[in-house]
Amino acid sequence: MRTAATKDASTKDAATKDAATKVAATGEVATFEVILKIRRNNPEASGEHEAGAGYWQEFRVKVHSTERILDALHTIKWEQDGSLTFRRSCAHGVCGSDAMRINGRNRLACKALIKDLHPSRPITIEPIQGLPVLKDLIVDMEPFFASYREIMPFLMPSGDAPKRERLQSPEQRARFEDTTKCILCAACTTSCPVFWTDGQYFGPAAIVNAHRFIFDSRDDAAWERLEILNDRDGVWKCRTTFNCTDACPRGIQVTEAISQVKRALATHRV
Which of 76, 91, 118, 193 has the smallest count of CB within 10 Å of its CB? Predict the structure, then answer.
């Protein structure tokens, strides 16, 4: 049964969308105020907030309907609180540096449109889970990249280098096309319940990047990578919850890629 508060929030959401639609019809850009509820964590804090102890802080920000969460974070940092700390680079969904947990779901801040996040209610923003928090929305990515490096993410062909490029048919390319899209944002890995509870698990991103080379016809080290993933902390720890696929901002079918790696190990065929 819906409560009065839920009905009120839904009414506000509808009003916001209607206002945006009317403004859009006139060629203008709608402006509205949102509350961002951000998880703060300062290892050098003193006084009210103990060092390393997380706490929530709310900010009111006036935004345009075309703006994304990253734009609002910039506004806070530049105009309200310069100590707010987060990563960002390209701001176009390519570098993967601004992955964070927004309204309980892993997303890229530069791709999450504020108007699509129920702006009539506080929007929660937290660091991605499963990795040590360094400050505010920044986590230590070293454990993530350590797993990535371990699967040897580079071509390892055998024999002498050819005089011309290594040829590949469209069908051969199609086998791993999807997994070439990974931008190493860690959104998939840090959405995985197994990774949260077991820091030794390679995680979806490492397996996806192994898949990209295992099924590449130009590479001859598929079985070396499969042997690495056959470890007790490797591919068999996946519980197929599909969290990783849902979290991927590039639309990679992560769970399917992991299943293909499992199948290769089970059948001894690549």
Answer: 193
**Residue 1, domain member (yes or no):** no
CATH number of residue 236's parent domain: 1.10.1060.10
The total domain count for the chain is 2
Residue 68 DSSP code: B
Which residues have C-beta within 8 Å of that of residue 243, sequence separation ≥ 6? 188, 191, 192, 193
Q: What is the CA radius of gyration of the chain?
A: 22
- Supply the CATH number for residue 69's domain: 3.10.20.30
Boundary residue ending a domain (139, 166, 184): 139
**Cα–Cα distances in angstroms (integers) from residue 80 to residues 57, 59, 63, 126, 167, in the given order:** 12, 8, 14, 18, 55
Q: Tell me the per-residue pLDDT of 247-268, one tens digit each, with 9 for 90 and over.
A: 999 999 999 999 999 999 999 9
pTM of the entire structure?
0.86
Residue of 8, 73, 61 whose CA lies nearest to 31:
61
Q: Which of 105, 139, 173 is the last residue of a domain?
A: 139
pLDDT level of residue 235 (50, 70, 90 thresholds):
very high
